[in-house]
# Entry
Amino acid sequence: MRTHSTRRLLGALAVASALALTATACGGSDSDASDSSPKGVRAALEKGGKLTVWAWEPTLKKVAADFEKKYPDVDVELVNAGTGDKQYTALQNAMDAGSGAPDVAQVEYYALGQFAIAKSVEDLAPYGARKYGKTFTTGPWNAVTRDKSVYALPMDSGPMAFFYNKKVFDKHGVKVPTTWDEYVEAARTLHKADPKIFITNDTGDAGATTSLIWQAGGRPYKADGTNVSVGFDDAGTRKYTATWQKLLDEKLVAPVTSWSDAWYKGLADGSLATLSIGAWMPANLTSGVPAASGDWRVAPLPQWTKGDRTSAENGGSSLAVPKAAKNKELAYAFTEFATTGAGASARVAQGAFPATRADLESKAFLDAPFPYFGGQKANQVFAESARNVGADWSYLPYQVYANSIFNDTAGKAYVSSTTLSDGLKAWQDASVKYGKDQGFTVD
# Structure
């Protein structure tokens, strides 16, 4: 079902190729909004109305409440329609049906280009969004813009960090690993001390896999207009597969799916001892694993080469306004409120990692203690990670589809005798074939 729906999403847009995105940017928005201008946005706020927002990010609850307080005639309904590609499938289904689409949707950076190519999200430039070019950090801003068009506003970014259960580490005398080799040893020590404890969970996740390959120096994707390449055979990828294969062979990672009830339980009771994930994670721990407050800490990612300080991105989302939104001006007003100024600061105060320069560089942000992490100034770790993200990473123009087939290809390494290297090769071959079928030149 998910793969089929994603095929429809790509089938509608990929034949037009990545060049269609540039053409759309040059041509501007074909919005049917009554007044897609700052003046129209102000009028929509005065009039009020109901907004439906599809998002899974927990700090938006506070933003929605603050927005309703500031604009009493506006009613914001937050809907969790699923995380990642589950929501994208639901969003595409609603668009195909011609009804049920939200007014605002959370869209991760890797997926936004596909919706922009399909012309299914608004160009927000006419509403005044271009003025925020210097408000956001370079990476997130580049992820939501093409030429003069702005297809979303950045919510956050996802420089990676190493979250670990200090209580569990201390109990078993395990030091925080600084390299991935030390990480494997820590996994062995913990699991030997208590077979119920795993260093982490992993059932096969495309985003986590590509992020760690990114950190290791692998660059499996290249994209230049309609010309793309896919290759999981470089030195960085081999570093990752060699290490992760040890964990799989020795059954040192728990077969627990992320974001499931079992996952939250494992994070709470200490049976899942670490997470290597984006800096947006604190808000999810605070809201989803309150019982473990004080047990967890944050450190830089373990390194593939001792002494390095390289990091990578994992996740990061924007807020976009679908073409099918009923009140685009009001939807833009909420998007602007949630991602800039007081709305952004409110989210940061709850643990979101900012894409806004002012928040990221402020002393208050860097020195803020995290009660959840025992008072640790975790933002200093996250900010350092943001400065050390490896450059020149690219996603495929059809990454949503590629990610949707990960478990059918690379994912076999988690449930069979297939090696991770062979699984990634199968993922590569399937991604190449699909790209060619959709009109891309792929090697």
